[in-house]
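User: Teach me something about this protein's shape.
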Amino acid sequence: MADLRALSDELVDRLRPLGTPERADGQRRYLKSTLTHLGVAMPQIRDTVRDFVRAHPDLDAAAYSDLVITLWQRRVYELRQVAVLLMERSASGLDASALDLVERLLRDAHTWALVDPLAIGVTGRIALNDARAWSRLDSWIVADDLWVRRAALLAHLPSLKADSEMFGHFAASADAVLDEREFFIRKAIGWVLREVGKRDPQAVVAWLEARTPLVSGVTIREAVKYLPAADRERLLAAFRPAAPRPR
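Assistant: First, the predicted structure itself:
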């Protein structure tokens, strides 16, 4: 059995010399984080994960899953980044049962910097390979946690790149949270629409035209970035912010 504490200590020893107090302080303030920060840049974290995996070819999928939990519980930002990267590396071999762990991490992440790769690089890739994931995402879109709802939207991105027919599922998910005031939800809807607009602009135009009185400014400004100029200008000209709904 792998010594999980020793492995996590090894990762700290690999990462600590790469960090700076200035970067740590900047990260902590930018992310409004309560975690410990070592101040390591993301490219160096990626290199560390690559070297660590090469140094431990004997670790199996179960050991890596247990290591993810151990790293996460240490409440060090860079170790949580490592945990996410390890999950990304194994995502193609995971099925919908792994979403129990992913949801636990999402609910404890409290920042887009951890949520977004868990949503796209892990959940999105699981959904590509296991159709059972979509029913779980349907429950996430109405979850009581902001970051779980954001993940339910962003997880569509890998599938939308592979299959334009998935736009209907995304549209239904977006409709479920269209009246949310949360910036991170509004931005996520716009982000996915922006990416779809690169490949299927008319699908985005049609979706926005039917919802112009309902979408937020954050959503529409993001969504129209790659649309044809005439469509972009027409949609922005027609946009009128909806009056806030009573809560």
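Now, about its shape. The chain has a mean pLDDT of 94. The CA atoms of residues 164 and 200 lie 8 Å apart. If you'd like, I can walk through any region in more detail.
User: That's plenty for now, thanks!
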